[in-house]
Amino acid sequence: MARPHAVVVPYPGSGHINPALQLSKLLHRHGVFITFVVTEHNLRRAWAAVEGAAGGREGFRIEAIPDGMLDADRDAQDYDISLSKATVNHGAAPLRELVARLRDRSAPGVPPVTCVLPTTLMSFALDVARELGVPSMVLAALGAAPLMAEMRLRELKERGYLPLKDESCLTNGYLEKTIIDWIPGMPPISLGDVSSFVRTTDPDDFGLWFNITEANNCTKAGSLIINTFDALEADVLAALRAEYPRIYTVGQLGTMLRLGEEASDDDSIDLSLWKHDTECLAWLDEQEPGSVVYANFGSLTVLTAAQLAEFAWGLAATGHPFLLVVREDLVHGGGELPPEFLAETAERRRVVTWCPQEPVLRHRAVGCFLTHCGWNSMLESIAAGVPMVCWPVFADQYTNRKYACELWGVGLRLDEEVRREQVAGRVREAMGSEEMRKSAAGWKAEAEAAARPGGSSHENLLGLVKALKEGSL
Ligand code: UDP
User: Fold this and answer.
1) How far apart are CA 44 and CA 38, in angstroms?
2) Would you identify the family this protein belongs to, as annotated (predicted)?
């Protein structure tokens, strides 16, 4: 039987590249040949930041295609929208050329392509696969619940909830008071928590259109892979599986890599778009167990300078040591932390521009995570047993917060308007809550059980590899 060869095509942001790379490493450990496709822009960034990022490894290659984006748009405030538009409009042609080349004229030692595996938001890759007669699977870069919620955006439009009637709906409590109680497998959820893309009065809003299209296009793939584990999202997974039977839950991917029994030398394959500060781990070593607050807003969130200052002063007021990640582009136009804040907290803080988040969350010193509720961040926190203080901003992050706070018992809410007193209060509460610590430890144990041989994610990974080997996607 020929060796299976998956062309993995993540959407060009960290929230997709990271889980796609983790899944690729797992598949590679099980004998699948991987071609990992990144954009030329991201490869230049990663190449500069991480030595040997594209380092050759038997059966694991990295290829780059253009993202079609104008350099002027890279600094735009709505960067993510520009990136999505460029990717949709310009991604198909170079990918088609690449997949056709790998299918027809593979280099020596490179088996013919047997599967195209994009992440969500990249459904043009599924069309390319179909045109070229190559089977496909898709990796959801979000959980089962937020995926199910986004799949229902179309029905919300058909039932007249969307677009919103007028601007007042954004501020008069309509989003919170309007309860949607008919999404399969999900508890009643406020309209505002379904997705950030409901916040529009424009019938042609790009974000809404794009997410409706992409969420539903997942089903064009032969199978759907989700970075979650069965115990965490049992109800909604049962409902999703009733609609799409070929679902492989293989998360939490980081735990799968860490606990997997397969030998590997893949640690040095790293495509981080920012340079990690690794010294923060040594700083954490010096702190008391469970004493540190870790604050990070992910790879895309943009804050105002005032919001950053409120978060910073809120952290200072907790009295705890803290690790604060301020990405270079976290505040549009540049945001310096207030000098008095830096002076006052010098003894008990570390501020870095990017950190190795999974090892940080797993460090015994970390007691709580102040997060923007990106799916990867939340799942990494759950798998590490760390309670969260939740401040969602965008996309699926509102649904994620609802689950963390109301269903999983591991999160506390912050108001949209950031106030230092509330930040300090909620962080202290999360740090001191025995109940949340217990829930978080319980989920960590579930995540590890799922990842061990015999566990649901481990079994599903084996099933996925078998399907790839047999060509039965
Ligand atoms: N991440 C990291 N270091 C940082 C910030 C983020 O390694 O300083 C990683 C994090 O572990 C996660 C990803 O970047 O895997 C962010 O994805 P997420 O879905 O949480 O949020 P997004 O960036 O897509 O908003």
Assistant:
1) 10
2) Belongs to the UDP-glycosyltransferase family.
